[in-house]
Structures are given as structure tokens and as C-alpha cells.
Design a protein that fits this description.
Structural class: mainly alpha
Radius of gyration: 33 Å
Number of strands: 0
Shape: rod-shaped
Largest sheet: none
Low-confidence stretches: none
Number of helices: 3
Strand content: under 5%
Distance between the termini: 16 Å
């Protein structure tokens, strides 16, 4: 923002009666700058939060899908594996017991791989509001230059 009167560094200092208005103008501009930076920060936080919510939802959905898959798939798989063990002279209980264990291990591994994949995505997400940080760095440089 520009004030009505530009201060040229080559000119003498302004008269003492203009200093209060200059300080007032500076205070207003700083207030507007802070408001703009806070608005940018809010926008970036909202974007980051949306990404975290989406990835967290996908982790939960993957876990639920793994659970449903575990229930239905394991029942079918257990029956198939148990029929193989029944042909090998294992007892009915032993055949189904071994089948349940094998199927449980397979689904556990698949579910963990899916959950870890999305957890890795979440951990790679950088929560730093980069645009706000860049703007604050620019403002810092500008203030150093002007003062």
C-alpha cells in the first residue's frame, strides 16, 4: 500500500507535525498486511486439512474393506483349503483349523500393506504452509530494505 506522500530517502525528514499521521498510516498498513497473511495461512491450513481428512478416510475405508474381505473371502478360502486337507487324511477339525490360520495370515498381510501405504502418504505430506512462509520471508526482506 502506498501513502499519499512518498518518503524519498534523499529528502530531509518530514516535519514533526506529520510524524503522527505517518505512524498512523504505517500502523494501518501493518494491520492490513497481518490480516492478509492470516487469511493466507487460514486458506493453506484448510487445504492441508482437506488432504489429511481425505487420506485418513482412505485409511479407514481400506481397513473396513480389508475387514469385509477378510470375512467373506476367508470363509470361502477356508472351505477350499479344508477340502484339500480333508483329502490328505487330516481330521475335519484339524483341516478347518489349519485353513482358518492360513487365511487369517494372508488377509492380515494384505490389510497391513494397504493401511501402511496410506499411512506413508500421510507421513510424506508436509504440513508447513509454504505460501505463507514465502510471503513472510518476502515481507521480512522488504522491511529490511525499507528500514
Amino acid at each position: 500500500m502506498q501513502t499519499e506522500k512518498q518518503i524519498d530517502k534523499r529528502q530531509p525528514a518530514p516535519p514533526l507535525d506529520e510524524i503522527p499521521s505517518l505512524v498512523s498510516d504505517l500502523g494501518g498498513e501493518v494491520s492490513q498486511l497481518v490480516d492478509a497473511k492470516i487469511g493466507l495461512l487460514k486458506l493453506e491450513i484448510k487445504d492441508e486439512l482437506a488432504t489429511y481428512v481425505f487420506n485418513s478416510t482412505m485409511v479407514a475405508a481400506s481397513a473396513a474393506l480389508a475387514g469385509v474381505g477378510f470375512v467373506f473371502g476367508s470363509l470361502a478360502l477356508v472351505a477350499g483349503i479344508a477340502s484339500i486337507f480333508l483329502r490328505s487324511d487330516f481330521g475335519v477339525q484339524t483341516s478347518y483349523g489349519i485353513s482358518f490360520i492360513l487365511v487369517a495370515v494372508v488377509y492380515l498381510v494384505v490389510g497391513l500393506i494397504g493401511a501402511l501405504r496410506f499411512i506413508k502418504r500421510i507421513s510424506r505430506q508436509d504440513p508447513t504452509p509454504e505460501r505463507t512462509v514465502q510471503e513472510l520471508r518476502k515481507d521480512k526482506q522488504w522491511l529490511k530494505h525499507e528500514l
